[in-house]
Amino acid sequence: MAIYNLGSINADNVYRVPHLVGPGETLAATGFSQGLGGKGANMSVAAARAAARVFHIGAVGGDGAWASERLLEYGVDTRHIARVDEPTGHANICVDEAGENDIVVFAGANRAITDAMIGAALAEASPGDSFVTQNETSGQAFGAATARKLGLRVIYAAAPFDAAAVTAVMEHLDLLVLNAVEAAQLSAQTGSDIGDLPVSDIIVTIGSQGCKWLSRGAEPRLFPALDVTPVDTTGAGDTFTGYLIAGLDRGMPMAQAIDLATRAAALMVTRVGTADVIPDLKEIQDMRLG
Length: 290
What we know:
Layout: E1 3-6, E2 10-16, E3 31-37, H1 39-49, E4 54-60, H2 65-73, E5 81-83, E6 89-95, E7 101-106, H3 115-122, E8 130-134, H4 140-149, E9 153-157, H5 163-169, E10 175-179, H6 180-190, E11 201-205, E12 211-215, E13 221-223, H7 236-249, H8 254-268, H9 281-286
Parallel strand pairs: 1-4, 1-8, 2-6, 4-5, 8-9, 9-10, 10-11
Antiparallel strand pairs: 2-3, 6-7, 11-12, 12-13
């Protein structure tokens, strides 16, 4: 099987800071690094490192050839990454001494993806393949609807959260992944309990507490997080989702895929960086955490 990921590609500018900046505050960073990021790119790398076959659907500007090359190095098929006139997307990320972060994102080329680009990529997909997207690109609703018509498993990672973006794709979804804050916001916007939404499976991540799996017709199931000391939480959720999708694509039952994803996210938060430091499958299999 294969995974088709309509996802963002960013340059991540990461600043180490004593604490997260407050309103009106000027703060001196204690360190700086730049690497590959974007929720889409992170998920593609994570899925590829989890031994899945991954096709990335996206766009970069004239300044973004390095990002496509980096994805290719990490095992992602980049034939459906277009070169457009917009600047490559980027994110400015501040990480404090406790590993918490705040992020400012400029979408750039990620919002210049056309329906024609998405359609050309999905024309190569087969029934039973997986399609995943997030709220950092254009074309999400078109991609989800097209994937559904073609018989793909359709997955949405609801971040950055926007209730309208979620409801626009909800009727096409097999799996929805979001965090506890996003779940509460979606429930408030729709007037429905999160477990009553018309999606077969919903994963709600709860940070250091782990995640909850809500499956239609079954009791909710909690999966605890592993006990680790985080140094940087950036990209941990994307790593979780990428590994989760890869596990499902490889035929794992949901519970086994969640366990794999939980271990990957636990290892990820012990590292500084995003796509460039996502662990590979052998590291997850060899880890002795929890």
